[in-house]
Every structure is written in structure tokens, then in C-alpha cells.
Amino acid sequence: MADHPSHDPLAGVPFDRVPPAGAYGVTGEPGIVASTADEPFIALVIARNGHAASVAGRLSRAFGSEVADRPRAAITAASTVIGTAPGRFLVLSKTETDLPGTLRALLGAEAAITEQGDAYVAFDLAGDKVPELLAKGALIDLDPRVFRPGDAATTVLAHVGVTLWRASETSWRVLVARSLEASFTRFLIASGAEFGLRLDGRAPGRG
Amino acid sequence: MSAPNRNRLASGGLIDRSKPLAFSFDGTDYHGYQGDTLASALLANGVRLVGRSFKYHRPRGIFSAGAEEPNALVELRAGARREPNTRATVTELFDGLEATSQNRWPSLALDALSVNRFLSPFLGAGFYYKTFMWPASFWEKLYEPVIRRAAGLGRAAVEEDPDHYEKATTFCDVLVIGAGPAGLMAALAAGRSGARVILADEDFLPGGGLNAEAGDVDRQPAPAYAAQVTAELASLPNVRVMSRTSVFGAYDSGTYGALERVSDHLAVPAPFQPRQRLWRIVARRAVLAAGATERPIVFGGNDRPGVMLAGAVGTYVQRHAALPGQAMALFANNDGAWRGMLAASVAGAHVETIVDVRTDVAPALVAAAQARGIRVLTGAQVIATHGKTLRRIEVATATGRERIAADTLAVSGGWSPSVHLTCHHGGKPAWNETLAAFVPGTCPPGLTVAGAAKGLFGLGACLRDGAAIGAEAAQALGFAVPAPDLPDMADEAFALTPFWHVAGSKGASFVDLQNDVTAKDVGIAHKEGFRSVELLKRYTTLGMATDQGRTSNVTGLAIMASLTGASIPETGTTIFRPPYTPVSLGALAGHHRGKDFRPVRLTPTHEWARAQGAVFVETGAWLRAQYFPRPGEKDWLETVSREVTAVRSSVGLIDVSTFGKIDLQGSDVGAFLDRVYINGFAALAVGKARYGVMLREDGLVMDDGTTARLAPEHYVMTTTTANAAKVYQHLEFCLQALWPELDVSLASVSEQWAQIALAGPRARDVLARVADGDVSNAALPFMGAIEGSVMGGVKARLFRLSFSGELGFEIAVPARHGAALAQALMQAGAEFGITPYGTEALGVMRIEKGHVSGNELSGQTTAGDLGFGRMASTKKDYIGRTLAARPGLTDPDRPSFVGFKPVDRARRLRAGAHFLKLGAPPDMANDQGYMTSVAYSPHLGHWIGLGLIKRGPERLGEHVRAYDPVRGEEIEVEICAPGFIDPEGVRLRG
Amino acid sequence: MRIPCPYCGERDAHEFAILGDATLTRPDPAAPDAETRFHDYVYLRDNPAGAHEEWWYHANGCRQWLRVKRDTRTHAISGAVAARADATSPRDAA
Fold it and tell me: In this record, what's one Pfam family (chain C) (predicted)?
């Protein structure tokens, strides 16, 4: 019996380079559309001892969405605030060009601010098959009946540490450490190939 | 090719006669149908000899119809996809299937090694232990290769597996294991409540025993009832039916392991489908409905092809419409086997004889058999078999012996509930006298057992119990369960007389068919004192290998019990560990094989470095540039020496983004640093950095690095690449568990900042062209740390630090600008011949400079050993201070850090060489320490080393031997101070 | 094994690193017998068969250090609290 070809969606892609944009896996309408962005502005807010509730309240008022001291994503058109640990919030903004400055002005001595805009690559995943794809790397329950829009988790996907949240009924976002972009993209392609995965080019971020 | 199979019934069964499937066995072409297993298709084609036994190479046939199969192991597929030891009984037939028998040479019919049979007196229990005791040297060269060829299973493919595998995790409220009558009803009851249910079944067709059942359930054929329930389950959005999925292990906290054979029933996986998928199923409750396994009776010649479990005969006839033979006999001790054979007879099987060890068989059964023309022998035993494949059985009755023609002998000694998963947390099964079987004992938390797996052997009872247990599982989780609509089923009485072994057998009587363990071997083990179950197993190999004794454990135990005179429960229990069925290594690895074994971290300048021709090296999870060869360079040493020389004479750059970088903010950071570093940090001025050493609480060095104070309440710490995660975790422990009152916030910024080290006498000239502000010695003195910008407005942190011993800077920019910074520095340094260098040159320069690194921070060295003794503050407490003062860690005889030069400068030093005094013999008593790091120093033109030697700093100038027995080398070396270059640090401060 | 992280919820043990006995308290370094006490603190461990309290670090989650009550015989986990006093919002404890 002649050996049949294997269907390796990563054949010929160097392991140490982010795989190029394009269609991977089965042909036809992709079950998953993945895109990445240098999220414009990200900062980590760490409430100082005793100030978590107050910080959450100030963030809620400033960003116009209920921020709680738990693993949830408070989402508006311009911003997302995600609880990652007690008293810790990752703030993503599309508009605040000096996000750390804005946050320092907002929170004063109640919080320590750390710029993280370059630490992560943000993956946007859309499509019905996203939960099935993520289940191939996740150790948490991402069943769409359980993991609802606005739910967030800091966890691992295929041994890569991530913060992920469900942005809407049909879209999920995953923050991945910049150094792991290539490995994580390989996981997405290998796991999404059976559904067909379209990887879109990097959305333009700030320069 | 679609002519009817020789032994196929004209109608009936769950096969699709309109879908013939071609396959081959040992090169001969056959065909079967959709719905066949390889075993049922072979039987339908009249193939009865399928393999040779493990040890004696005896001919073997198909023995069972399930996962318990000990005999019919074949190699499946060919080339890179060749898979050994697959059980023909659970291999779903597909078009083009290619199977080969194994463990035979030169052919299955004529096996040269079957002479092993005549050696069987020597190959009995304990043979490995007795025969090959000496001489020991013969083992590897002679015994093992011969045994490996003579006794064995199939051959693995030698090429890389072309298929891919994956892993996935899923969650449910109720996991139902097994889709037989109990499992289907359990899933239905739980599913109708709205609970998230997973029903996992190893077969490709849900239904279990219902698919081999001749009678009706709910006024329709049993298989149709199974299909109806399955269809309802599939229609429920909260229920997931997973066929071809074996739950193989029960792990902690309701986690179950399962293997889904996604593509094993296809010649080649569909495009981009995995071959298999390993599931981690997290279930709040689980229902084990794994059914039961029939067990044989042990008698002479019971391994002959044609001898088969009675339930398997029923399955082949009812489900596959395949006749295992043309003249069938039954040998049994229970009523269930009779009913199965009568049903097979009705379906068209030629059942001619029933032999039962009992004298009190129910008259109704006997009458029913006789009404079908079946000869009945009660109080009788099969004592021998004859024929290459079975032709005749020899039966002992009350009146004498008789040979009866039969090409198939169905055997049933009763049933063993499949309690395997109940044992995975250490629970022991309990002996049930009535059933003569082990039933579940203590189960893993959250798991309950239903149906035949707990010893219910009636179909009606299994259906009712499954519904009740499934409902109970859902109710326990708060789901409201609607009343079940149970099929009306009355069960026939269960009647069995325990019977294990025909004592007056002629010829070898096999207990364990897969391992060729006979009743005599159990007797030998008993005589020689290996009477506990665990010893019996290891001495005779009973219960080992791929079937793990599914059909042999209880029988072996019973025979041992009869020999010792003890009861079965006194003799022992069978304990099962995961996995329930074999799991391929590919599935366990999933996506993580080859270069995807684990995630790889790439530096911000990775692509840039590649363009520069870098050779990369793995350092932990990171891939770093090791060196940058240029055309014409003959080896790495030439390249590295060029890079070092370029830095020392002009300027070079290296990406050091891999260092751990931690931002510390708060009013107590200074106090905190004082507690985690041996040296003082509270007085560190804003704009300055300081080198620090951290200990573990046991007093040994954990890590080193620099911490800079960027603002009054803002510091940034660097750690070594290797210890980044460990140090962060340690600091969090200190803050959360030891000193929660401190106002300190930690944030890892390792990914946020790209960091490039610029070193060499022209470093400042280069930096000045890239930096937006003043980087003069006044603005950025040695150990200075400032925030500013580079490249016309890119935010930057600038540090005046040096690992190389040269004038050095480290420039940190937001990571997305890392590659641009490297390019800008290259451009700015072009006129100075700026040279990118890798980790090798970095290592050479730190050794020339006498800095410690990972080789010295080995977890066995103290601050004092490494020459940092005077750095340690005596004015404060810090982690590790108390135990660092222990006599064992302050012994002046401890090997301490110094440098080494070869006395003959032409010779090469070796890391790992041990130091001996001149003339001292090489033994442990004379061991003085060892060489930790070596490098060829282009600056000095010879090899240099760093190492730890007893009282090193007191012995500068002394000559010792560097003894390297691994390479067979011995070199006389001179002890020197560890700084080989610019020991006063003039260059640093330039 | 799954550990109920007070912040993240129940998580697989793969996300955690274990440090060991959480019933020990770092000794006072100023005590006259500090060396003996530190020796005990660093090296001497009870190894109970049954209920135990251990430090687990949620490395791939919220990075909290947790005190986890675990039965060493069965791996049954009866609870977990953050090292900082208040489990759900420890930093508000002050």
C-alpha cells in the first residue's frame, strides 16, 4: 500500500516564524477566522492594599461598564477591562494614547500602573467552531452555554499562558505573550484545520 | 467480489449487504460488509487461524468479540501506518483494510518456531528467572535477542507516523461510560433532565449487548430499540454521544481519560482529521455501565482455533450474521450460555451438541435444545480437543469418554463484571458468591455503577437499573428527572454453578491465552511458593500484556484458590489500573511532537537575527542567537572569537530580552528588596542600578541580577533567563505569604520590553546616535539607570551595565520596536564595524571577566563560595541569612570560586574536570572541586576556566591537575583570580 | 486533580505549582535559637496520611499563593484560600 499523504496544515512552515496569513485546513467557508492585532493600548492596574473595590468602581465610571473584582471582561466600544487576579485589571483601550497616564490620573495612589501594550498579541477568534478549537488546548469549560459573553479567564491553552474572554456571542479574544505568538498560531492552525481556519494579517496597530 | 461469504447467513444481522468492503489478510483478498469487524469478516470468510501464541507459537483463532481479545492480534495497515497488536475483534472493517498475522515465521500455517511447543517443559512458569541466570554477560548478547525473536508481539512501524493526533478537554454533568442497555437508559434518564450528558462507548454502534440480542425489547427487535434510544439521545442538545470512544481511566476530581478513535475505521484519515483524539472529560458525576466480560472454562486444548467464548458466538451470529463454523458445540456451566446458543440455532447456526458440567440443568432448557435436534450431555466435561483447527472435542461423561465432531466450541464459565474503572482510585472489588464473580467495591467519588458491570445479568434488570442510576446522578446535581418510560421486560432466572478447570484434561490447558500460561504453570507457582495474586502474576506473567488478563484473571485466581484450599476472596482480588485499553503514545502527545513538543519563545529580534545569519540555540523555552557565522569561517570557535574581538576592540550588540524583568512599585519596595537580596537596596538612589544576589531560605544562592530604581516608588529587577519564572514565583510567595503587609506590587514586564546590550569601547558613540538625550558619562554614569527615549521618540529605559567587562549599556524599548532598535544600532555603528554577537561570545566574555553564571549558580553554591561573602549585609535580615551561617555552609574548606589557566597554554580546558593536588591519586577523598566553565579567550590567546576549588582564593598561583576521566584527559592548571581581563574595571567606567 | 481557586474557580492541577506544607510559619530570625528553628522550617516535614494543608501557586492563572486542604490518601480537596486573608478580594483585607 502506497503511503497516503498526511494532511499537515503546517507543512513547510518554519516552526520559529509566525505562520503567514492565509487559509489553512479544509477548503470552503472557514469554520474559524483568526486575526491578530497589536492591541493599541494596554495597561495593568494593580490595586494597592485595601483599594480593590474602590479601583473597580473608578474603572467602572471611567470606562462606562461595570468592572468587578473577578474574572469578567467589561466591554465597551472603545475599551475592555478584564479582571485577571484579585485587585488586578488589564485595561485595553483603542483611544487612550497615554493609557498609563490616564489611569494614574484616575486612580492616583490607589493603584500601581504598568504599561503592557507590547507584552501581548491579541487574537480575535470568530466562528461557531471556536469553542471546539479552544477545547483542544484549554483545561477550562468553554462550552458556550457555560462560558458566556463577558466571561474571562487567565489560564493556559496548549501550554501557553493566556488571558481570554468571550467578547460576544460569536467572538472570543485571547491575549498571548508576544514571544509565543508563533507557537500559539501553530496550535490554532493545527487545531483549527479540520474546521478550516482563515488567518488574517496583522491588523494595524499604533506604529 | 460481492459473492456471498462462505459462512455468512443470508439475512439478518446489523451489516449492510449493499456495502461490500474489500480487505486482505496475510496477502489474500477477502470481502466483508459495512458493519463488520475484522474478526467477523474473517469468520464469515472461513478464516479461523489468525495468529501464533506469544511463547509457544501455537496456532490461535478468534476467541472473543470484544476488547478482551487475547489471541486475534494483528498488524494493521502497512508502511508508516503499520500498527501492531491491534485486536481484530474491535477493528472496524474498512475498504482496503490490510491486516497481517504476527509472531510467526516464515508463515502463519507453517511456523518454524512452533518447536517451542516441544520445549514447553522448559518454558513454564518462572522460566525467565530460572534459565537465564548466568553468565550475566550472555543476557544482552544471546538470550535477549533470541527470546525477543521467538516470543513476541507485532512490529511497530519504523517510519514517522504520518497522521496527527490531538488532545481535548470537555466538561459534563453526567458521564455515562458504555452504551449498552444500562448505559443507554442512564444517558436517557439524565439527558431528559436537561443535564449535560456525555455517553461514551468503545463500539462504533451504540447498543452493546442489545445489538447481539435475539429477542424483542419494547415490541421491537433489541437492536432497533437501541437505535431508537440512540436517536433520541442524539436529538437532545445537552447530550453528546461519543462512539468509538473508550474511557480508559478514572482520575482525580471527576476527571476521566478517554480515547476517541476518530479515523481508525478509515484507511486514511479524512483531510485534516486526526487519527485519534485523547479526551480529558471532567464530569461532576459518572455512571459506569461497562457491562461484563465472559470467562472461559479451562480444559485441555482450549486454545485451539475454533474454541470461542459463547457470548462471542452469539454476537457473530446475531450482530454480524457470521457463522464461526458449521458444526457447533457448547461447553458451559450456566443457563445464559444455553439461551444464547438456542437463539443462534434459531438464527441459522448449526448447533449440534451442548455439554454442561451441571447435572441439574433446568428441564425446560434441555427440552428446548432437544426440540432443535441438539444433543445434550449434562454432568459432562470437555477434556481435550483435536485438529489443526478444531475438528473434534473429547468429552468425559458419567459413562465414559467420547469424541464428538465439532469445528466450533462455544465456552462459557460465567461472566465477570467490568469493574476496572471502579478500581482506579484503589477500590477493591468484592466477591459475590451467587454470581461467582467480583463486583464493584468502593468506587471513585462521584461514580456509580449500573447494569451488568455491577452484576445484573438480566436484560430487563439492566435497563431498569440504568434508568434508575442515570436519574439518581442527575437528581444529585439538582436536575429534575421526568419519570422514565421503561420497556416491559421480564428476566429469565440466572443459574450458574461455579466451575473453573477440567482437572482430568488431556494436553495443555491454558488459563491465559495471550501469555501462554497454563493451569500447570499456576500449579508450579503454587508449589514454588508464589501464591499471592501479585506474585502469581509476576512469576507466570498471567494477566499481563495487551489484554491485561480480561478473560484469565479470575480463572487463574480460582485455580490458585483450589490449590491452596482457601476461598477466592481469601486468595486475593484482581486490581486494575489505568488504562483500561491500550492508548497510543501519539494520542498522549497530541499536537506536541517534534518542534511543537513545547511552546518556543522568540525574541523581538528573532527575524532580524535570522537575516543576519544567526545560528540559534534553545535556552529554556527561548530560542536565542548563539553566534553569527560569516562566509569563510571554518568553525564556531573562529566565529565566536571574531565576535569577542570585535566587542573588545570596538562595539557589538546582543539581544538580552530573555532576562526576567519585573517592575516593582510601592512605598515598601526598598524594604522588600532588602529582605530578598543579601545586599542592601534601601539606600539605592533614583537613577541607579545595583547588582544583587538572592538566596533560597536554605542559604544557597538562587539567582543574581541587577535592580534599578527608576523613581522613588518604582524599581525594575532583572533575573537570569533561566530563573525568571522561579524568581517571580518566589517574590510573590514572599509578598503574599510572608509579608502581606508590605506595599509592593509586582508586574512581570519581560514581554513588554525588548532589551539590547551594547558593549565595547565605542558603545557610547553608537548609543549617542540612537538615543534622543544625553548619554555622556555624566548623564549616565556606570550603574546608571534612566528613562528616556531613542530613535526620535520611542520610549526607552537606558542602563549602564556590563556583563562583558567593556563599556556597556542595555537599552530597553517596547517590544514591538526591538527589531527596529537593533537595526538602528547597526546603522549607527556601521562605521565602527558594529558586530552582532550571540550567547557563545557573551559566555566567553563573562568568563574572561570572571562573572558567575548558570554553571556556577548551580543550587549548591553559597554567596561565600562565589566570592560574594563581603556583599552580604550584616545589618538586616534577608531570606536565607540564618541558614547561610550554618557551619556546613561557612566551612573554609568549601570549594570556592577562582580562575584557571592551563600551564601548557596550548592545551584545551574541559568543564566538568575535577581538581586534584599534583601527584594525588584520582579518588573521591582527593577531590578538590571542579571546573564549572571554560572558554577560549581570544584576548589572551589560550583557554581559560572558572571553577570551584577548596580554599581557592588562598591558593592563587598554585598548580593542580584538572582530571577529566570522561574524556580521558588530565591537564596541569594554575589557579588564578577569576578576572582575566581588566580586573580593576577601568573599561567599565570609561 | 482539580483545585478550587477562590478567584479563578476550579482549575486543573496542571495550572499550579506545589510548594508543600502550609502549616509552617517562617521563624523569627532574631530568636536566640533561630538557626534550629530555621532548620526545622526548611527541612523537617510531617508527611501525614490524610488531611494536609499545602501551598499551591496558581502559576497559570491569577498567580495567587493558595493554602489548599488536601487529603494525601485520596487527593480529595476540601477547600482552598488565598494566602492573603480574604479569599475573593484579599487586597481589600487591610
Answer: SoxD
